[in-house]
Design goal:
Elements lengths: L12 H9 L1 E6 L4 H12 L3 E2 L4 E2 L10 E2 L7 E6 L5 H13 L2 E4 L1 H7 L10 H4 L3 H4 L9
Antiparallel strand pairs: 1-5, 1-6, 2-3, 4-5
Length: about 140
C-alpha cells in the first residue's frame, strides 16, 4: 500500500460498513438517476457490443430498481465496492451535496427495503376458518 494511501485516521461508520460488506448502498431521487446512469455509461464506454455479447448500459433501468419504503420515492441501488472508483465518488459528490444522492450503511439500506408482497403469507392462510372453530353440534340443556 503506498504511503499516501495510508492514514492513521479511524474509518467512519460508512467506510467501515463498506469494508465489512463489500458494497456501496446508494439512494437516488428518480429525477437524478438518468444523469447518474448516463455518467456510468459514458465513463465505462457503454454500450459495448461484440460478436458474443453486448452490454447496453452500466446500471439497470430505473424501473428495475426497488423504491425505498419511506415514501421518499428514492431508488435503491447496491454496487460492489470494487466497481466504484475514487473518480466515480468524486463525480458523484455534487449529487450528494445537492441531496439527490446518498450513500447509506447496509443497516440503513435494509430498513428501507420494501417488503416483497409476494413473499408475505396471505392472512387467510394464517388464520383458521371461523367455521372450523365453532362446534358442529349444538348442545341442549338437560
Amino acid at each position: 500500500m503506498p504511503d499516501e494511501d495510508y492514514s492513521d485516521e479511524p474509518l467512519t461508520e460508512l467506510e467501515q460498513d463498506q469494508l465489512d460488506t463489500g458494497w456501496l448502498f446508494f439512494l437516488a431521487l428518480p429525477e437524478a438517476y438518468p444523469a447518474l446512469s448516463g455518467y456510468v455509461d459514458e465513463s465505462r464506454g457503454y454500450p459495448i457490443g461484440g460478436a458474443k455479447a453486448s452490454t447496453l448500459r452500466g446500471l439497470p433501468p430505473a424501473e428495475d430498481l426497488q423504491v425505498a419504503n419511506d415514501e421518499s420515492g428514492r431508488l435503491m441501488l447496491g454496487l460492489e465496492t470494487w466497481r466504484v472508483t475514487s473518480d466515480d465518488l468524486a463525480a458523484l459528490q455534487p449529487y450528494i451535496d445537492q441531496g439527490v444522492l446518498s450513500i447509506v450503511t447496509e443497516q440503513e439500506w435494509l430498513a428501507l427495503e420494501p417488503e416483497d408482497e409476494d413473499l408475505l403469507p396471505d392472512l387467510d392462510d394464517l388464520l383458521p376458518d371461523l367455521d372450523d372453530l365453532l362446534p358442529t353440534q349444538t348442545l341442549t340443556a338437560q
